[in-house]
Predict the structure.
Amino acid sequence: MNNAPVRIAVLIGSVRAGRFGPTVARWFAGETGRRDDVEIDLVDLHEANLSPALDGNRDDPHDPVEPLRRRLAAADAFVVVTPEYNHSYPAGLKTAIDSFHAEWAAKPVGFVSYGGLSGGIRAVEHLRPVFVELHAAPVRDAVSLHEFWNLFDDDGGLTDGGAGATAAHVLTDQLVWWGRTLRDGRASHGLVA
């Protein structure tokens, strides 16, 4: 078994102006990045130019999407940080997911959602079958931040009495276990078609 740290790509799923996703993602990355069994790569989809992927320009070595492709391919696991828009997840996140395929396969995916009363859980429930279709492995537990605008201080710290931190560590424990197991499986057996 390869005991190297699990490389977790934390994706900021919202690309809207005024979004809160970077605050949530930085909190999660800070909370879990102190562990010695993970390496965090904070991926802001707002910075990725996904228009070439939409145009089908996937074979150009100078494709501006290529840096994002390499980062996703290098990950052993993913955490998708998503708000809930209209009882689902953002269009920019859907574009990013659909722009890649093999990069997601046989890797665990965890979710950190934020929203109003629902805490973004409806977005997560819509994302789970999408990732299953891509041969990814969504993990059971997630972090859900209800009424997020009341949960963070001015420095981006979570002020919920530790519940979010506990949930983040449970999620990360699952990602580390699945990340190592699937990384070993990919190395030994390749990908299932």
Observations:
- The first strand starts at residue 6 and ends at 12.
- Residues 52 and 99 are 9 Å apart (CA to CA).
- Helices lie at 21-32, 51-54, 66-74, 91-98, 121-133, 163-189.
- The first helix runs from residue 21 to 32.
